Queue: 2 jobs
Job 1
Amino acid sequence: MSPSKPIKFKYFYQQFFSHISIIIVAFLILSLLFAHYVENLVYQNKADELISYGKAILTDMKETPFATKEIMNQYSRVLAARKMSFSMFDEDGNLYLVGKRGPAIKGLSDKEWKKITEGQTLIVQSDFKRFGQEGVTFVVLPYHDNGRFVGGILLTSPISGSSDMIRQINKFLLYTILIASAVSLLLSWFLSRIHVNRIKRLREATSLVSAGNYHVNVKSSNFDEIGELANDFNHMVDKINTSMEEIESLENRRRQFMADVSHEMRTPLTTISGVIEGLRNNMIPEKDKEKGINLVSHEAKRLIRLVNENLDFEKIRSNQIQLFREDIQLLEVLEIIQEQLMLQAEEKNNSLIVEVEPDIMVNADYDRLVQILINITKNSIQFTANGTIWLRGKEDVNWIIVEVEDTGIGIDPNELENIWRRFYKADISRTSNPYGEFGLGLSIVKQLVLLHNGEIEVFSEKGKGTKFVIRFQKTN
């Protein structure tokens, strides 16, 4: 039995119903609070009106005790016009209607009666049970004579008028809620649709990326989190696109590298194989045998050098190189480079000049420092003819600076940054590789300089020459 699929609840409806529910709940709470406030306000105003009439009656009766009947009749007519009534009661709670004796006040609790006898005003709103009337607001005002409780006055007002007013207010409040809910419904639908459409665009863009299209861009902003998400998405796509371009470029360089490896290794191997076959079959004259053996030796050393360059790069890349740093006299190192490469320089009619003070010391791994300088100097020799190559050393406050400058053909400005990349070969000729046998030479040089916590820069102008500047930090 296959498991049932989970029920999906679209994000649009989640947004829509969450907005509406919040608005409706807020409206209901505000409506109830407002209705309660208005109702209390209406009844409180009615109670305040009754209290003011009661106080006026008691004051007039106290000031003119001989005209009590006239005062009561006068107020009775005034209050009747306002649909109100009042009665007097004695200290025992016996109720006196205007002009005749009435029943005792019923329904008052002991607590309420005690409150009246102590001189406090009793207010009851919306009472439907006491005094034989349906739906009244009444107040009871006590009357004291020389500090002695002698009775009081009861004033009542029907709540029908107040109830009608409250119902009318609630009716308008209901209409307001319905109109506001309709407007909120439209606004919620509109806002939810906007948010969902923005998310939908992100989803469609994500689908395109997953399908292999890395040139996608979505509209972004810093207005809210969705806009920031779109910014992050665009940044992610840009990085993926850059990475894919780099991967493609790396793959192309790898293919080129394999072709170069095949070409570079095939030539010396073919030479070695041919010379050995010639020696074995006595096809090489005796006078040329030594020349053939020297050729085999030269090509074998070339193969060893090619292999060593690859091994060096892999060791550097996997962090397997260990440096043995020491203080080295820079003049000594540069003179060794000059001595080793002088013959190669002379073959191209170049001058190799060393310019450095004897007291300048550099803290570095001797073998790796020689490797760095030989790689750079050989490149300068290879692309300089009938010119000059300077090996300079100097110092400033924080650095020991080594410069290798030539008057050769220079490097195209568009290729300056690329010369440090692995497998890179300047596109001058397929058989003449200026930056190491496999395009690894300068890549190894840069990695070795960085391992020394140093810096390396190259400055070049087409047709005027190139200058490599290497900086090693001074030791304290």
Job 2
Amino acid sequence: MSADSQIFIPPSFIALYTDARGRLRGTPAELAARYELCEDLANHLVEQAQLLYHGAGAPSEGDILLGIHAGLAAPEAGFPDGQADWVVLRLAELLAWRAPALPGPAE
């Protein structure tokens, strides 16, 4: 990522890539690429979540978000270190839905 990059990475995402001393784990380019992937995915999931919500026998907003989280949190999905949580919380924000309590790593 160049110094003149205009991508704003929110502190909530940067926190996923910092250690206990506040140092960045990985390169700025890796952080920017992963952020863009997660932000794009959250935006892409907006329409899917709305379709599920307005479908026949529709689950609640929270159930939809928890279902999406379950899929993203699976090891084979490739969203480690709280990224699945971040995507779902960002999705809730984009939809103006109340964010559910997300399960912890052991659940």
